[in-house]
Amino acid sequence: MFEQLDALLLARIQFAFTVSFHFIFPAFSIGLASYLAVLEGLWLKTGKSIYLDLFKYWLKIFAIAFAMGVVSGIVMSYQFGTNWSKFSDIAGPVIGPLMAYEVLTAFFLEAGFLGVMLFGMNKVGKKLHFAATLMVAIGTFISAFWILSVNSWMQTPVGYEIGANGQYLPGESWWDIVFNPSFPYRLVHTVIAAYLTTAFVVGGGGAWHLLKDRTNLHARKMFSMAMWMAAIVAPIQIFAGDMHGLNTLEHQPQKVMAMEGHYESHPNGAPLILFGIPNSEEKRVDYAIEIPKASSLILKHDLNAPLAGLDTIPDDEEPPVGIVFWSFRIMVGIGFAMLGIGAWSLFARFRKKLYDWPLLHKAALVMAPSGFIAVLAGWITTEVGRQPYVIYNLLRTADAASPLDAPAVAASLLAFVIVYFVVFGAGVWYILHLMHKPPHAGEYGVKRGDTGPIRTAGITPGPSQNPGDPDTLPRDHEEATDGR
Amino acid sequence: MDVNVDLTTIWAFIIAFAVFAYVVMDGFDLGIGILFPTFDVGPERDRAMNSIAPVWDGNETWLVLGGGGLFAAFPLAYAVILPATYPLIIAMLLGLVFRGVAFEYRWRDPGHRRYWDAAFTGGSLVAAMAQGMTLGALLQGIEVVDRSYAGSWFDWFTPYTLLTGLGTVAVYALLGATWLVWKLEGDSQHHARSLAKKAAWSTLVLMGGVSLYNVFLNAEYAERWLTAPEIYFAAPVPILTAVIAIALLRALSVDRHSKPFWLSIALFFFGMAGLGVTMWPYVVPPGLTIWDAAAPERSQIFMLVGVAITMPLIIAYTAWAYWVFRGKVADEGYH
């Protein structure tokens, strides 16, 4: 009995670990693919080389992030079968086809055009190359579409029948399954999150280079574009998140109860608990700082509207409150911090100090990785918040796992942890190394080979430190510190 | 063999096609990884890498279609095979992680390039071996009780699966070497050709070994291959395989460029057709036929519409991407 429980917990940790690591990369590459498409489009439209330089600067980073996303994504497509075989058998007829559509309409599109996007500029010409970039960007969006449809169906399952063999079978309409009740909200919220995440990485990179050299035109352009995104998209995201929350209240009320820390029902308007420490033993929030009736105002648009609490839910159907409560606050806190940076940048623009305000640049630098933290916190909120179910109200997580023994799952978990930290640690390091170099005129693209001088058409090479590729880490590490 | 052409049969062929496409296309990528240590450090390695850099990601996507397609069309098979071969699948995935990132990392970090080259080879070798052993574990049979894997931890580890694993490594090496014969020139091409000859002989020996083993492994398999009327359907497969093997060895002994690659694919196609004849109509021998494991008709139809629309497009733009990077790999690589 205990062994079974341990294997289950290990399988859950393994899924949480592999999917969290994986999602970091698409969260970045969905936004970056679109940013690259915008940059290349602006270059084609205006003919200004600064856009091409920025395109090539970020393309190198995109190549690394995309490779990490691909290899960690393949792991995910097999995790369902290796660790959650009961789930795969039972839910396969409904969600399997959606995932097959993701492969057919998104993965092939991205992968098929990626080679041309990375290496094909001189082979296919500008316009076809731009088309390839667009295909990759569209592919990342289509991929998000299908996988979020799958996830949303697991949160708000509709349109299914239960077969004689215990499987969930598709009902009359696939439309109902694909466009299940929480899907539109989750899709909008997640895709905007990816754009914001990328905007803050780009903005942080720009801010870093402005702090070193505020006259760098490429850094200025980068920073300015990112701050427009922050100023415009952060408020939209807060609105979209609010809509998503209302949708969750309608379909998964106990998730919202956990997010809000509402152990008790409030018949005459529920308070908004800003901070506090959820105490699951005593079923209350200790040291709560709360605004009376504000939760009812937000969730029901009425100060005195009654709101049910976890006391209305059987104990064995409650999600873990502490994790959901905290991760939700982290996400929301970062969202408002992003809004603040966006507003600050507008003010700086108004005062004509956008490139000349080190404090703003420092703040943007600090916020550079905030998008990743926010998206992970958001996913933790929604995934932990639907527990103890893997398919909401239908299939418990405990009934979904593979018939594996704990040592097998523990060994594979350990292997994933070691490999991921080594491999993706190195990849993140390489990305940071590329971002550390200032963007400049005559930026190199993605190159392969350091066997001879490589010239990108029409561009004078920079001073040669390494034969070939100046964006690689120097062979000699001491040289690296001296060089800067 | 009675073949009812129904949706389930169509789906079995679609999955088989995805697996074949994967094994051929990522096969030559992985084969180059397996052969990588035999290439000289410097231009020879760079050229070998550059010959697949623009296409490896698309090639690997067929693996996701094979896995995802199996999940969608035969969910029960997916739910049984993966736990049964758990350590192999995990090893394959981790191997593919190392292999995949090495494409980018080796260029970014010349100081540690030899480590990423080693990761490229190690990852490719582990992935190839694990895939071959998974195939062997499937062919030798998986114990299923009550819609779940019911065997023990190491059922997948037998002399037979080691043989299928090595056979897969040899086939991939052959595909990789003949791809390089096509894409390289000069000394590197000569080197690739000599590797291809060794890989071809290894492949033939191991394919023969697996075939003999299949006939003795399982009475039902033997019956299929050795008695009438089945033998009339089955016999052309080994005969054609032998004809192609001879043509391949001849093509490698003269100065051919693309022909050995295409003959290797043909050789491999008949090898897989042979396995298909051996397994049919089971998706998980000895208990689950394709009909036992099939998704309901609604799922099959929904996906078939998607396949019918997207597959021609996928093949078209994949072919275009290969066309863009056609010809011999130049010294300086792509830029």
UniProtKB/TrEMBL annotation, chain B:
GO terms for cellular component: cytochrome complex; plasma membrane. This is Cytochrome d ubiquinol oxidase subunit II. It is a multi-pass membrane protein. The keyword Ribonucleoprotein does not apply. The chain crosses the membrane at residues 12-39, 84-103, 115-139, 159-181, 201-219, 231-249, 261-281, 301-325. One of its GO terms (biological process) is aerobic electron transport chain. Keywords: Cell membrane, Membrane, Transmembrane, Transmembrane helix. Belongs to the cytochrome ubiquinol oxidase subunit 2 family. The keyword Cell membrane applies. It is found in: Cell membrane.
